[in-house]
Amino acid sequence: MHKQASGDQSFDRIAEKFDKNIYGTTKGRLRHELLTHYLNDLLPTQPLEVLDAGGGTGIMAQFLLEKGHQVLLNDVSADALQLARQRLGRYGQVQYHLGPVQELPADRHFELVVCHAMLEWLSQPLEVLALLIERIAPGGMLSLSFFNRDAHIFSNLIYGNFDYIDKDFIVPNRVRLNPNNSLHPSEVLDFLHSLGLTVRHKAGIRCFHDYVRDKGIQTSQYEQIKRKELEYGRQHPFVWLGRYFHLIAVKPES
To answer: Is 92 annotated to bind ligand?
Structure first.
């Protein structure tokens, strides 16, 4: 029986709804396609041993498996992993781990650790991030994306949600599909540097998709939006405006 840290979010009983609400929208589709584009560009071509931490229903794991990598898919939600097993049933090079990352075997290390859209659901995100970095083999890589607190503030400013900001985004009836704990990109970058990692890539994910005035173009002009997201997502100042922040970092050889 695993123990989940107090305040951490699990998607048991709502995993199917979460899967549809996230990946059945242009927001989720665009986030996933931007991340896979950058991974295609930056990951080695040879098969890697990968930890997909907080990998949920297996959307990113499927991309990695199709690239020939071996994947250990981790999540705290049994319901999410059940959906992942259905999605990934035809792949032989996948394993599953139910429980928090703190319960992963301490002596097992990975050439790539993927942690996408997980930290914002945790009560102590940087502590968990430090544990994940310990699981990276020397010279291995980290692909990390997280909900951008700076962009969260900016979006609520332009929507006029001033009271929500003043309350530090804490409301009595929190929606379970809303992230709990966004992070400042500068804070995460400083943290990685303090642990000796070298950041090789950083990009904003959905730098303007969520801000467009006419929401209809999110669907009607999706491909044009995607092209512009890729064009501007790694450029200053747009990189800092993405609703999610993505980075790839490398652990020292020793």
So the answer is: no
| Annotated binding residue 209 | no
Q: Is 149 a known ligand-binding residue?
A: no
The CATH code that applies to domain 15-250 is 3.40.50.150
d(CA 85, CA 82): 5
Could you give the CA distance from residue 210 to residue 223 in angstroms, rounded to a whole number? 15
Within 8 A by CB and 6+ apart from 126, the residues are 119, 187, 188, 191
Give the residue extent of every domain in the chain: 15-250
Cβ atoms 120, 179 nearer than 8 A? yes
pLDDT band at 2 (very low <50, low <70, confident <90, very high): very low
User: What is the pTM for the complete model shown?
Assistant: 0.89
Angle (CA) 35 38 42, round 5°:
135
Nearest to 23, CA basis, from 114, 100, 116, 160: 116
Residue 38: pLDDT over 90: yes
